[in-house]
Amino acid sequence: MEAHQSPHLSIVIPTLDAAAGLAATLCAVAGAPFPVEVIVADGGSADATRSIAEDHGATVVAAPRGRGAQLAEGAKRASGRWLLFLHADTVPGAGWAEAVATFTADPANRDRWAVFRFALDDRGAAPRFMERAVAWRGRVLGLPYGDQGLLVGRGLYDAVGGYRSLALMEDVDLVRRLGRRRLRVLDVAAVTSAKRYRDGGYLRRPLLNLCCLGLYFLGVSPAVLARIYR
User: Fold this and answer.
1) Which end of the chain has less neighbouring CB within 10 Å, N or C?
2) pLDDT top residue among 227 and 3
3) Which residues contact 6 (CB under 8 A, 6 or more apart)?
């Protein structure tokens, strides 16, 4: 990409001690057939996260710790006409670049946003149930989370106010402002690490998420929810 050429897509990845899975994510987004800028917004990693990101050609920016603040800072530094927010342990599947190119090329999508299909890198009935539950939540409630990726044009992102520096629920806060009627689901899986489900339990973890979501809609502050979540 020539130095003066504005990137078509900026990929923003928030990180905190994400060395274990970051390389796979960065390798997956490399080699897109259009200009891509990769920004890793790091919240103060003590492991090899920063060096891994730099070795893969990403721009590393320091950000206040907290996913909302990191996403906001990464977006602030991004120069792409489209923004793709991606978790460090989420790997877009084959065909992701083509799906993004098709979506962003359609003028009708200028005021729409998109996510990938949710998938987990684990076998068995429990992860498949989780995938179906997430699909239902996105289809019926219009509430996809950040582990599906979030593709949005710079104009729409700025118009709704972008990410806020919330302690928790930063994704829900943003997608509610983007609006469910504008949401499209790309027919490509984003495969996310199932480690948190294996560690926290395929029953306990979703119940905790559901509890926090319900309390959020009842008006409990993200700061209080973050303490409950931890």
Assistant:
1) C
2) 227
3) 35, 79, 80, 81
As a whole number, the mean pLDDT across the chain is 94
CA distance 11 to 34: 13
Domain extents in the chain: 9-196
CA count, 13 A, side-chain hemisphere, 24:
17
For 47, list phi and psi in degrees, rounded to 5. -105, -155
Residues 20, 24, 29, 32, CA torsion sign: positive
User: What are the pLDDT digits (tens) for 187-210?
Assistant: 999 999 999 999 989 999 899 999
**9-196 architecture in CATH?**
Alpha-Beta Complex (3.90)
- The Cα–Cα gap between 91 and 29 comes to 8
- H/E stretch holding 15 reads strand 9-15
pLDDT band at 117 (very low <50, low <70, confident <90, very high): very high
pTM of the model: 0.93
**What is the C-alpha separation between 132 and 113, in angstroms, rounded?**
21
- Which two tokens mark 78? 């991004």
Amino acid letter, residue 155: G
